[in-house]
Amino acid sequence: MRKEDIAWVILSHLHFDHCGYIKYLKNARISVQRKEYTAALSSSCPGYIQEDFNSDDIQWDFRDGDWQAFPGLNLITTFGHTPGHQSAVVTLPHSGPMILSFDTGDLQENFTALHIPGSTTNAQDALLSIKRLNDLKTQLDAELVLFHDPQAIEKLKIFPHYYD
């Protein structure tokens, strides 16, 4: 796949490890929370590298609040790690609902013991977002996918295995 073939990118937030070099995806629509973009432009946080995303060539698709990308993929606000962080709820035909937490919480203990994650811009928002994902997990009988917990990562399916 060439970068010219990428038509759409949905970002959880604009820290460099999530958005690096989107400025080179000139054919892609880039979806992010408007609140995240505004905060990233005015932040001195070293996690934001503005040259990665501050370009007139980017085709921004700003969102305000929860939204549906398409049936089976919903983005939900989970502010706290950053001012405009969003997580995803994916519903797969056989695997069922999965909550992609991205950086809402770093470790399982953030969700089980309601510990505030180590990196937040707003601790109260971070805790509310963790509670929101916990509630959704229960309501949807969903799998909560954590991206920074070492034990959780070891249990994820990786290529050639997949979720369907």
Compact overview of the structure:
The protein has 164 residues and is an alpha/beta fold.
Characterise this structure.
- The protein has 164 residues and is of the alpha/beta class.
- The chain contains 6 helices and 8 strands.
- The chain has a 5-stranded mixed β-sheet, with helices on one face.
- The radius of gyration is 16 Å and the shape is globular.
- The mean pLDDT is 95.
Radius of gyration, in Å, reads: 16 Å
Largest sheet, if any? 5 strands, mixed
Q: What structural class should be given to the helix and strand makeup? A: alpha/beta
Give the beta-strand count.
8
Strand content: 15-25%
Given the C-alpha coordinates, what overall shape results?
globular
End-to-end distance: 22 Å
Which range best describes the helical content: under 10%, 10-25%, 25-40%, 40-55%, 55-70% or over 70%?
25-40%
Question: SSE order, as H and E?
Answer: EHEHHEEEEEHHEH
* Uncertain parts: none
User: Could you report the average pLDDT, rounded to the nearest whole number?
Assistant: 95
Which SSEs are present, and which pair or pack?
Layout: E1 8-10, H1 16-19, E2 29-33, H2 34-42, H3 50-53, E3 59-63, E4 67-70, E5 73-77, E6 86-92, E7 96-100, H4 108-112, H5 123-140, E8 143-145, H6 150-155
Parallel strand pairs: 1-2, 2-3, 7-8
Antiparallel strand pairs: 4-5, 5-6, 6-7
Which keywords apply here?
164 residues; alpha/beta; 5-stranded mixed β-sheet; 3-stranded parallel β-sheet; 8 strands; globular
